[in-house]
Write a structure and sequence with these properties.
Blueprint (H helix, E strand, L loop, with lengths): L2 E6 L3 E5 L2 E5 L4 E3 L3 E4 L2 E2 L17 E5 L3 H8 L14 E3 L12 E4 L2 E8 L4 H6 L5 H8 L4 E7 L1 E3 L6 E4 L7 H9 L5 H7 L7 H13 L7
Parallel strand pairs: 7-8
Antiparallel strand pairs: 1-4, 1-8, 2-3, 5-6, 5-12, 7-11, 9-10, 9-13, 10-11
Amino acid sequence: MKIISINISSPKTIIFNKKKLNTSIFKKPTEDEVIVGPLGIKGDKQADLKAHGGFHKAIYAYSYKHYDHWGDCLKKNFSNSYGLMGENLTIDNFDEKEFYIGDQFNISNTILRITQPRIPCYKLGIKMNQRDFPKLFIDYGHLGMYMEVLKGGPISKGNDLELIHREEITMSVYEISKLIFDAKENIDAMQKALKIDCLSEEIKERFSSRLVKLGHYDSI
């Protein structure tokens, strides 16, 4: 696996529905070496710190492999549109079905760990110029991966990702993504997810809340 683009941005103001909106979803590629710290890439800023950023969502990675799917789906050529989903790291082949919550990766002595899938919001629809895109994104199930920084340092375009650790109790990022948005009860699967130490508290709270509503108070 290889980083084919590193994408960053500062918050910018756009006009949406005749209202001003601050967003950092319009990431642009950088050719420079970047420094990764506990809260992400130096020089990359988030507009909405409640939904993005923080220690458990310091880096957002997405697979370039999915660009073809969206090109076919939307009848557009996204081959050079790095940062398409607002990701920090565009990785050549980073399939959510093949990687798991808690997986750790070494990138040029920087170590990142997967914590959760991305939860899309309406701003992704703005980015893709299609109002219903968040639903299409959710239905596809390949939402990308948020990662926390276990060891900071410099990374560059072209660096390889080396999988160095996998948890014994875990689920794939794709499984967690589908579970978040599946209308079925999925009690056993949610209870299993809550046992994953590295799964972010944000997602655990979602599952705990749903289990309580279903009468499973033993899960909290």
